[in-house]
Request: fold
Amino acid sequence: MRRLKSLQFKHLARPKPAITAVLLLFVLLALPQLMSLYYVDTMTQVAVYSMVALALGVLVGRVGLVSLGQVAVLAVGAWVAARLLFATGQPYLLIVLEAGLVTMIAGTAIGLPALRLRGLYLALITLMLAGGITVVLATVNFPNGGHGFLGYNGSLVHIPPIRRPSFAASDPAYFRFAVIIAIAMFALVLAHVKTRPGRAWAAIRQSEPAALAAGINTTLYKLWAFALASFITGVAGGVLAGAIHYLYSIGFPTQDSITLLAVVLMGGAYSLWGAVVAGLLYQFLPSLLNNWGVSADWLTILFGIGVLQVLTTAPAGLADQVPRDLARLYRLLYRLLGRLRGSRPREGEPAPDPETAERVP
Amino acid sequence: MPPWSNFEPFVVSGLALGGVYALSGVGLVVLYRATGVLYLAFGAVGALGALTAWSLAQAGAPGWLTWLACVAVAAAVTLGYGTLFGPALAKRDPLVKAVATIGLTLVLYGLMDLLWTTSGGQARSLTLPTDNSGFTIGQITVTDTQVIALAAGVVLTAATATFLRFTKLGTAMRAMANDREITATLGVPVRRVEAAAWLGCGILAGIAGLLLADLVALDATTLTFLVISSLAAVLIARLRSIALTFAAALVVGLLHDLLTPVVSLSNYRDMTPFVIAAIGLLVLSRHRVMVQSREGA
Reply:
């Protein structure tokens, strides 16, 4: 009985497909109706940044490659999408796909030489590359409907907004559009994790020499991870372009990549739900605090403490820790309740088994 | 290409900037060698020190007290972090240790933005009295601050190298860089040596923060993330050589400022450290795969 009760909390950590489906239907159908437009916009951003966090989670959690430049990759995706949206009349969905593919090529091209580096060096070179991309973007600017390859015209007075797909022009509709694309990206990652690439990545994360000895083409699978992460981030950039209509290079500072890594670690880099938690932490909390009139600096401080806490005590992040702590709290309450009912354990009820209590997460 | 005379003033400012990068880089390398921590909060603690100094100056404190406070604050925060989180993370991967200092960076950054808000658009500045004194070589004015910045880079690099080579504590640090466990077995008080390294790094961060606040800008964001530029020099030296760090820092500083008069490249000059670091890392790693252990790197 006791064991059964605590086992129920496992569902929180790894929800059944049915629960996930109900949750998704609620988010898609009911959520936009329940929220003000302010929060609908915020939740669209959450969907976008969940995708970015998902991509970073693939690199950090699955393969063990830490990237400190993911926001710069997002900026590249947004730039490509914006340029194509101004230049062509292609369907939005196609452009999102193209932005993903172009970003994928760029990300893989960067990943190719960086593959020689590992650990700290790899993290730092991604930080350097992100710094470089940020400087270039600050100079060339985002397309604003001008002509030429860069599509930027500094003397333009009336800057046209970046268009949205015709079927998702309103904010709630665009939110649904973003969520559906995010679901597709999560499914894409799930398909990878459950099959051969996922197993190869796990082997590489554990020990690269061992993976090599087992006959895994480590170069191929590491590049594959870079390509997948860049593709997802590029798609996220494409969705972001339509979501906010106007893009500016100051919206993608290098330090955001660092904060993003912090929230991904806090959310939990090893689980897909961690990416959703990270998206909520990164976009929903600031909006909430802004609405309450609390400075966002508190959030930065919180993220900093969160990183230190995660690294020292909870390596799997909030997505893993919260259900575990809830289960622990539940057991504690259960025990207290039992103690209140009678100091002696009643007949027929097994005595508390400390080993089981330890083992069940 | 503009005539050479346009470049001359930027040689001076570039060398000054390079000097500060050098002393930052040396602080980072020493701490990394002794503890395995790449201290990414180096810029943030320097910024915290500089902002504290600014507040004290506003309150009417004498100059020497504000400078002392700047260095003391940076050293105290660094030492506090080192004693609190250093031992807990000692056995972890260098990458984990570096990411943990990002946590400290975010805490400090949020705190600075909260206490010294810039939302009102107010710009702060920290000027040292040495800004107004100086001399001229040919037609170029050289302020004493610039001289101090370069001299600090040179002197502190030489002093650190001498310290590591000839003192007992320095020898212990070098031993720990090779193997923490064996050093501990030999009876070296590992924690105390690590604390000394943290303190030294913190002092250098304070000095760097004070000089950069004067030479570049007194702004939490700028100063916090200027550490990335110093990192470029450290990376080229592959977190090992102090001499190489010094040379690379001077090149980064010089090149950055020398690009200013070149119109077509001026906007891209902030890329200098990133490009140099990226090329340096990739060329250096051409013939071998870099591993993350300190012994093999």
Summary: Residues 13-227 of chain B form one domain. Chain B touches chain A through 49 residues (CB under 8 Å). Residues 289-297 of chain B have pLDDT under 50 and may be disordered. Chain B has one domain: 13-227.
